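Deviation from plan, reported transparently: iron/sulfur cluster complex.
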Amino acid sequence: MTEAAGDRGDLVRVNFDFRRELAEKIEGDLASFCYQCGACVGDCPAATYSDEFNPREIMLKVLYGLGEELLVKDSILWQCTNCYNCHERCPQEVKPVEVIISLKNMLADRGIYPDPVAKIIKTFEETGRTTPLNAAVDRQRKRFGLPPMSPVPMDEIRKLIEPQDSAREAAKE
Ligand code: SF4
Ligand code: SF4
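Because the crystal trials were delayed, the predicted structure below was used instead.
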């Protein structure tokens, strides 16, 4: 006799709320097209050097709507280097890297990120750049015949990041 679905402890229930929340962060519900072929793993530097990181497994969690398991302190998501190799390998054009970036953004919205990321956020809030400019950068640009970097419109950037800051503070409370 077939066991009733409600009685089976090993059943995974798809959390469509999480899938919908993620789909709002990226254009289209890309994750739905993942058929778990594993092509994204073969050329992934993070998977090569880490026993924990596997983009196919991340996509499987997302497919089940179990992304909350990834949205934790010291998440493996931060091991992704954003190299886009998985994007080039994926036959389904799922763009796993963009799914992972969106998950990282969800972590950042909740104020959960490692110290190096906190440092980058602080630099960006102060200078409008993720790495500060210095004389060496100017020298290198001159050497390659490039013009000096344009000033950053900090007023506009502040208008954009202030609502994000408030949301992040609220998420921490
Ligand atoms: S994301 Fe693409 S490459 Fe990776 S398992 Fe899914 S379909 Fe395959
Ligand atoms: S972008 Fe991230 S998941 Fe994709 S191949 Fe590079 S390190 Fe791996």
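The pocket of iron/sulfur cluster (ligand 1) is lined by residues 34-40, 55-56, 59, 89-90, 92, 94, 96 (CB under 6 Å). We consider this an acceptable substitute for the interim report.
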